[in-house]
Fold this protein.
Amino acid sequence: MTRLIFLGPPGAGKGTQAQTLADFWQIPHISTGEILRQAMKDQTPLGIQAQSYVDQGELVPDQLVEDLVQERLKQPDAQSGWILDGFPRKVTQAGFLEELLGKIGQGGERVVNLDVPDEIVIARLLSRGRKDDSEDVIRRRLEVYRAETAPLIDYYSDRHKLLTVNGNQSEEEVTTALKNVITA
Ligand code: AMP
């Protein structure tokens, strides 16, 4: 059973790699950022609530993402494994997830940290052109990453769940390295 959490700064290539591996293993790629962007596009209640946070590079309130992850992991297609991309993003969310996975009998998850230097991340984000990729918002998202998300590296390392891959290689090399550490 493949249950993976992708960690790493914005622009590390998490989304691309998560999608490639999810296709390879035929399991869902669950990106909270994608789900929020779709909800904003459709102007659902979730999207309307999330909009101002996403636009400013802030994290949306825990409750919003926790509810959506809980619902998503209960879906039939998530019973054979999943890749979570963008969740958890802070220690409180990691605690929530740990408890949820215990409750729904989906333990044994591993965490992959895609390690990429700051200057590479910034260059990649600037070339991506997403609405929340303006320079100020990028700066804010990196600050939020360092303050809230980077502590998860220690959190999962302490729990012996962490694998690290060098994300500063070609897309194909990163995919190969990920497959190697995950199946090792
Ligand atoms: P991403 O596509 O993962 O870069 O996420 C884009 C934006 O969605 C983030 O900058 C946050 O505003 C929001 N977001 C995504 N996942 C989370 C999460 N787990 N907790 C809070 N906000 C999130």
Observations:
- The pocket of adenosine monophosphate is lined by residues 10, 32-33, 36, 53-54, 57-60, 65, 86-87, 89, 93, 132, 141 (CB under 6 Å).
